[in-house]
Design goal:
Length: 415
């Protein structure tokens, strides 16, 4: 039995994602495909446009056999931690033979060479990086100069570091090396629109383009050409009932969290030092909404996305100290299923037999299966989902007839 792993957000699921799953199976000759997917909050520091169950069902309809949730403390972290934790989760299942991801480069050798150079930072790299950062350059600029100084054989490929999927792909390769993983790495060259392209005209458009279309015009004929029919039906049925959700829908909750924590400061949250904490406190009286406050806080050395992630860490109560504890104790402590295909029963049996972490199917049983550290991580996932669902319920009051919000009562998707 061969199994390929994919790390994704599917925000939302579209034709490019279905193509990726199909090609990953072909390339690796896999019998099964396991997807590690962000839950209700995604890596750019924002809520997912639609909830994790709708996205998981779309993935299953699009060719995945099993969808597992990436814990929220990692789903809204840096690319390095996002990749490292996702690879660890796949690795700990004990059955995944390969990892396949998309990239603009399409050359796994080049991406692996960059990964090795960045994982094993030598004295020349560290010295040059420090000098460039002190000179006022951004981290990406400083990193590129440091790489050219310490690994001149990569200079001809330095443009690889200007594309977002390449950068994330390098982080996946770094993570495989870091964990000394037995999983083989494969990459599929990204086709169609670029990551930041918001046009729906290309063969495979970006998820950004679809999100912008849903924000402004809803489902349309042009959108229908970009999404598999089964997923489109799910989206049409749920539109204006449980989605679309945007970062600004969380504006008041974030403001409340900032006002509540103002006295203590925010330097105990990931990606926030004392300088940024002081800046948040200084500018808090000018807070109007989430997105404008991110714009207000961003600077030459702090991107909008990094600020957005920082504010989400504050909202969800994710602290540096707790993340350090997770890292010291093994990073990943469970695999929580969001959905699976019933035809994948042999895969589930193999995971239960070979995994070194529990495969969670019922939240009610988690307390018996997890040690305190793992339980605290899971509790944060549940808390994040309840916050997300409270926003959905408030925005679409007629969309969910259930009288209560409870992650414990959301069933696993089965196809």
């Amino acid at each position: 039995m061969k199994t390929v792993g994919i790390i994704a957000e599917y925000n939302p699921f579209h034709n490019g994602h279905a193509y990726h799953i199909r090609k990953a199976r072909e390339l690796t000759h896999a019998d099964y495909c396991v997807v590690v997917m962000s839950g209700d909050f995604v890596q750019r520091g924002a809520p997912a446009m639609m909830d994790k169950y709708l996205r998981a069902e779309s993935a299953l309809l699009g060719g995945a056999d099993l969808v597992i949730e990436l814990p929220v403390c990692y789903s809204i972290s840096s690319a390095e931690h996002f990749a490292r934790s996702s690879v660890a989760l796949l690795d700990k299942l004990g059955v995944v033979d390969s990892l396949c991801f998309g990239s603009e480069c399409g050359d796994i050798r080049v991406l692996t060479d960059f990964a090795q150079a960045l994982l094993n930072e030598g004295p020349v790299f560290k010295k040059t990086l420090d000098q460039e950062l002190r000179s006022g350059h951004t981290y990406p600029q400083a990193r590129n100069v440091a790489l050219e100084a310490s690994a001149p054989h990569l200079t001809s490929h330095i443009n690889v570091l200007t594309s977002p999927n390449n950068i994330l792909g390098i982080e996946y390769c770094k993570a495989l090396l870091y964990w000394k993983s037995r999983m083989a790495s494969y990459t599929i060259k990204r086709t169609g629109a670029s990551y930041h392209d918001n046009s729906l005209d290309s063969g495979f458009c970006s998820a950004l383009a679809i999100r912008e279309s849903l924000r402004h015009t809803g489902t349309s004929e042009s959108l229908a050409r970009q999404i598999p029919a089964a997923s489109l039906k799910l989206m049409e049925d749920a539109y204006l009932k449980s989605y679309p959700v945007f970062a600004d829908d969380f504006s008041l909750l974030v403001q409340y969290s900032l006002l509540t924590g103002e006295k203590e400061g925010f330097a105990h949250y990931p990606d926030i030092d004392k300088e940024l904490s002081d800046r948040i406190i200084k500018l808090l009286p000018q807070y109007r909404d989430f997105s404008s406050f991110c714009d207000l806080l961003k600077s030459k050395n702090r991107t909008y996305v990094r600020i957005s992630r920082s504010l989400m860490h504050i909202l969800l109560g994710i602290h540096k100290e707790r993340l350090m504890q997770y890292g010291q104790e093994g990073w990943i402590f469970y695999a929580r299923m969001l959905g699976f295909r019933e035809s994948a029963a042999p895969l589930l049996s193999a995971i239960k037999k070979n995994a070194c972490i529990p495969l969670l199917s019922k939240l009610a049983d988690a307390e018996k299966q997890l040690a305190p550290t793992g339980l605290s991580m899971l509790e944060k996932d549940i808390y994040a989902s309840h916050i997300y669902q409270s926003i959905v319920r408030n925005k679409f009051p007629g969309g969910n007839p259930s009288p209560e919000i409870s992650e414990y009562k959301n069933p696993i998707i089965k196809l």
